[in-house]
Design a protein that fits this description.
- This protein is an alpha/beta fold.
- About 40% of the residues lie in helices and about 15% in strands.
- The strands form three sheets. Strands 3-9-8-7-6-4-5 form a seven-stranded mixed sheet, sandwiched between helices. Strands 1-2-11 form a three-stranded mixed sheet. A three-stranded antiparallel sheet has the order 10-13-12, with helices on one face.
- Strand 4, helix 6 and strand 5 form a beta-alpha-beta unit.
- The longest helix has 24 residues.
- Bound molecules: 4'-deoxy-4'-aminopyridoxal-5'-phosphate.
- 4'-deoxy-4'-aminopyridoxal-5'-phosphate (PMP) binds next to helix 5.
- Keywords: Ligase, Transferase.
Amino acid sequence: MSSQKMLDRIRHDKRIWAHRVLTKHDQNPFFRVMRSVNAPIVDVEGQQRIMLGSNNYMGLADHPLVVEGARTALDKYGATVTGSRLLNGTIDLHMELEAELADWHGTEAAIVFTTGYQANLGAISALVGVGDTVVVDSGAHASIYDACRLSRANIRAFRHNQVDKLEEKLSRSEGAILVVVDGLYSMHGDLPPLVEIAALCEKYDAALMVDEAHSVAVMGPQLTGVAEMFGIADDVDVRMGCFSKGLGSSGGFVAGSTDIVDAMRCHARTFMFTTAGVPAALGAAQAAIRLARSSEGQERSRRVLGNARYLHDGLAAAGVDVGTESNTPLPDGTEMISAIVPVNIRDDLKAMNIWKEVYDQGIFVSYATFPAVAQGAAMLRVCLQADHTTEQLDRTIDVISKVIAGHGLLRQAEPVSVS
Ligand code: PMP
């Protein structure tokens, strides 16, 4: 490398140093090589393991109709569209997909991005700029923070899920105001107090954006996500979602008014200056949306949320800490257990050792540490799928609770209220 300064910086970077040490180490939870990815049982490094670390919540990523949708689009349009949406990259499949997304969400319009990350970057930076304010939950996804920086608006973060803190920030905001929250927080699987947030947006003339990456296709009466589940979908100005999780494909979108969507078509740099998503991803997404909107979608949603409740209650009954401090009850007062169940361990090294013991017993979960979660909040992120069997879940409960017990981390088992 010709820049000695850059080379020195890389060699002294703590994160790169830790990565190099860790990837040589047997306990390493990152970059494990998958030989199959989507089913409830996958091949990781030559061994069959129960996959509880995938965002394939609805089990659509390898669903025959979704694979067929991908294949049909691949055959028809080829491997890629080799161009930006603005120029030669818009195909009729984009137009169909955008019309179907708008119809599903009951909005005037929708716009498809190549990834969910780019959807967030493009959406936020197209809507606010210098002199405006973007108010963000402190637990919001990294792409939302990157988007805020790209927008050059003033950034105000409020403490996770605390509406009084949100109001404090709103009362001191200037210019056009955009409030951005996740519909479902991707690490702890907790829900925001969306009804109160929407009311504050109304009070302070702020637009509201909800990132439904982990909830679209999984939650809400029509499975469009948490805003719909809380009955306030019409109060959300920017409804962002991903194809890459519940919908089993790849890509991102925003559904909203014609004004909002046109702002993105004309100002979102991550829409204009990148190659449109590959046709296979669009074809898969279209098939997955149709499935999500069918009775099979409803049935799969029931199964994944039932599986989540079963695993959560089983682990809690065994004394494993699966708590989220900030989960918001539904309007009927019940607590929703999402498809993401956190196993809180807190200490990094212990969490890594626990991860490895669980892995060695044939179970793949995700290990999460700072900056994915707060400092000192290391955890295992356990994700359910519609196709997990009770037998697989029983084995998971048994393995995780025994490993946690072996580290002296079991709490006194509490009776779990079933709602
Ligand atoms: N928002 C949230 C809340 C996410 O968790 C993610 C990805 N994990 C994204 C946006 C980005 O989506 P994609 O992976 O489709 O780029």
